[in-house]
């Protein structure tokens, strides 16, 4: 293993992570809900009476964030390298998988681990392992 | 405040994703590429987020109520079954193919990135498949009651 020290950014990573944690605590204290991006969007498909407004608001906040981020600090536009076919296949897998598992990086990886949930630990180990394996196959072959 | 809170939470979440580098798939893939030039930054994102949430959730649990006095809706699902493992494995493959998980993918739409929008549309379609096919969720009711996030 070679560590890429030039791209390693521990301070913004820790600070950004802390903001994500604060957002999760904020949603629990304000609305009593677990912060999970896949659940926010998945809960709108289909929308349910009395449940869609907070989800739509949180998603709107997520989408507005890059505009504010660019005013506050250096927030480069994402450089998405994947082509259309990979984007569609990847999106389908992420959407299907996170709903089947009832959570993603935020719901299981952050909130679940912070609650010391064994179920979320299992989910996190599974998606991390699959992520490492997929990148290994794509970049280094079998 | 309760009315505006979800928007502010989404904003804070998105700022954290932008600052941490999670919105950049190249950085995410560099973290997932253990055999290449490995960028461990995203481990620090998880560390920072979990540390803050760990303490904050303890405070919330001790309070037992939201600021407006409503009950807290903690996840109740405990089963480590085929749905949670199989779903997470499929999610991980998609994450590794593109470098986007749901939160950063949605935030990247705010960078007015067409590829992110295509990914989010496909992601919503994948979610819709689960929504219209509740039987695949191993008998779990297709309601929000058991939701982890």
Automatic annotation (TrEMBL), chain A:
InterPro entries the UniProt entry points to: Sulf_transp_TsuA/YedE
Gene Ontology, cellular component aspect: plasma membrane
Entry's transmembrane regions: 20-44, 56-73, 79-101, 121-138
Subcellular location: Cell inner membrane
Cell membrane found in the keyword field: yes
Primary residence: membrane
Membrane topology classification: Multi-pass membrane protein
UniProt xrefs under Pfam families: Sulf_transp
Domain of life: Bacteria
This protein's UniProt keywords: Cell inner membrane, Cell membrane, Membrane, Transmembrane, Transmembrane helix, Transport
Similarity comment: family membership: Belongs to the TsuA/YedE (TC 9.B.102) family.
Protein name, as recorded: Uncharacterized protein
Biological source species: Roseiarcus fermentans
Lineage: Bacteria, Pseudomonadati, Pseudomonadota, Alphaproteobacteria, Hyphomicrobiales
UniProtKB/TrEMBL annotation, chain B:
InterPro entries (UniProt xref): DUF6691
Any Pfam family: DUF6691
Regions crossing the membrane: 40-59, 79-98, 118-136
Keywords: Membrane, Transmembrane, Transmembrane helix
Name of the protein in its database record: Sulphur transport domain-containing protein
Species, as recorded: Roseiarcus fermentans
């Amino acid at each position: 293993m070679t560590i890429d020290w030039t791209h390693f950014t521990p301070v913004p990573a820790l600070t950004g992570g802390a903001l994500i944690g604060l957002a999760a605590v904020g949603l629990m204290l304000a609305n009593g809900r677990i912060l999970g991006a896949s659940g926010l969007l998945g809960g709108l498909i289909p929308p349910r009476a009395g449940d869609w407004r907070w989800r739509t608001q949180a998603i709107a906040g997520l989408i507005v964030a890059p505009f504010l981020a660019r005013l506050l600090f250096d927030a480069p536009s994402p450089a998405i390298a994947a082509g259309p076919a990979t984007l569609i296949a990847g999106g389908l897998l992420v959407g299907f998988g996170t709903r089947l598992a009832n959570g993603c990086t935020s719901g299981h990886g952050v909130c679940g681990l912070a609650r010391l949930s064994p179920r979320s630990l299992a989910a996190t180990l599974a998606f991390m392992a699959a992520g490492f394996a997929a990148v290994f196959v794509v970049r280094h072959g079998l | 405040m309760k009315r505006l809170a979800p928007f502010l939470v989404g904003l804070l979440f998105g700022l954290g994703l932008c600052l941490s580098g999670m919105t950049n798939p190249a950085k995410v893939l560099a973290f997932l590429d253990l055999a290449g030039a490995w960028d461990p930054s995203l481990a620090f994102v998880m560390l920072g987020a979990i540390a803050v949430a760990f303490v904050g959730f303890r405070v919330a649990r001790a309070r037992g109520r939201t600021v407006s006095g409503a009950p807290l809706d903690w996840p109740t699902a405990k089963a480590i079954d085929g749905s949670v493992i199989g779903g997470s494995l499929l999610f991980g493959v998609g994450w590794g193919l593109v470098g986007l998980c749901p939160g950063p993918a949605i935030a990247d739409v705010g960078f007015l990135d067409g590829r992110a929008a295509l990914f989010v549309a496909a992601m919503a379609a994948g979610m819709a498949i689960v929504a219209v096919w509740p039987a695949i969720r191993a008998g779990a009711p297709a309601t929000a009651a058991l939701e982890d996030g």
